[in-house]
Automatic annotation (TrEMBL):
Keywords: Amino-acid biosynthesis, Aromatic amino acid biosynthesis, Oxidoreductase. Pfam families: Shikimate_dh_N. It comes from Hypericibacter terrae. It comes from the Bacteria. Residues 12-94 form the Shikimate dehydrogenase substrate binding N-terminal domain. This is Shikimate dehydrogenase (NADP(+)). InterPro entries: Aminoacid_DH-like_N_sf, NAD(P)-bd_dom_sf, Shikimate_DH-bd_N, Shikimate_DH_fam. One of its GO terms (molecular function) is shikimate 3-dehydrogenase (NADP+) activity. The gene is aroE. GO terms for biological process: aromatic amino acid family biosynthetic process; chorismate biosynthetic process; shikimate metabolic process.
Length: 278
């Protein structure tokens, strides 16, 4: 799909062929008669700076939806950040307010919405999260804000989870935090926020015996075929929540943030709630 002409939003990242967000947003715009469209732009970190310099001069682009692996890198190019983006250091939505770009992150809200749609609340739960990247950090912040009893974060990069937890503890509100799983604790909710499962043959971030002791499994990865984690969860009779539900939980929030003057994720959510009232 081309990127020239008309008012538009770019979705940037790589790989990007499989993402559903542009189609979902375009469906909303078409339904409501808005002369706005979302276009995909395959883009890696090395080309990000040059591309954004071009966009600074393009008055047809009103904002960005950002996916892997650019959610952290995009923050270096923002003029303003929501409090959440300042905390987690990643953004997946950027609105161009004239010459001032503001970044927000709706991964956590989408995650919570997906769980709620499956009848699962985070309050009081013990949660184990694999992956401390751009999406993982936003999800972690939402887990804490929603009143989980504990959160264990693990990441393949040494020290990454521990460094983030130093910041997250400032807003933990009684949620017990740990870098790595706590011995002898069964986690009710298991979350995969790594890229494992994107490629056929990828291993699961959780061994089957860990899945067996859980209740709900969330895999935010959207691959071409069911991931090993999804197959294990289904085989063991666990409630499974996939990445598509998380995307669907963010689409209307993206729209509100990108097309209004909402100054934060919460403001976008409130605007959406008001629009839904009869």
């Amino acid at each position: 799909m081309g990127t020239s002409g008309g008012r538009r939003i770019e979705m940037i990242g790589t790989p990007i062929a499989h993402v559903r967000t542009p189609d979902l947003l375009n469906g909303l715009f078409q339904r409501d008669g808005e002369a706005l469209r979302v276009v995909k732009k395959r883009l890696g970190p090395a080309a990000l700076g040059d591309h954004l310099r071009v966009l600074r001069k393009d008055r047809g682009v009103i904002g960005l939806v950002v996916t892997t692996p650019l959610k952290t890198a995009i923050c270096d190019h923002l003029d303003r950040r929501t409090a959440l983006v300042a905390l987690v250091g990643s953004a997946n939505c950027v609105r161009f307010d004239g010459g001032s770009w503001i970044g927000a992150n709706f991964d956590g809200m989408g995650f919570e919405s997906a769980l709620a749609g499956a009848g699962v609340a985070l309050a009081g739960k013990h949660v184990r999260l694999a992956g401390c990247g751009g999406a993982g950090k936003a999800i972690a912040a939402r887990i804490v804000a929603a009143g989980a009893a504990s959160l264990a974060i693990e990441d393949g990069e040494p020290g990454k989870a521990a460094d983030f937890l130093l910041r997250l503890r400032r807003v933990a509100r009684g949620c017990a935090l740990s870098a790595g799983a706590t011995a002898n604790r069964d986690y009710q909710i298991l979350v995969n926020a790594t890229t494992l499962g994107m490629q056929a043959g990828d291993p699961s971030p959780f061994r089957p015996e860990i899945v067996a002791r859980g209740e709900t499994v969330v895999d935010i990865v959207i691959g071409d075929s069911p991931s090993r984690l999804q197959r294990d969860a289904r085989k063991l009779g666990k409630l499974f929540v996939g990445g598509t539900a998380m995307v669907q939980g963010q689409v209307e929030l993206f729209r509100r943030f990108l097309t209004t003057a909402a100054s934060s994720e919460t403001a976008a959510a409130r605007a959406l709630q008001r629009s839904a009232r009869p």
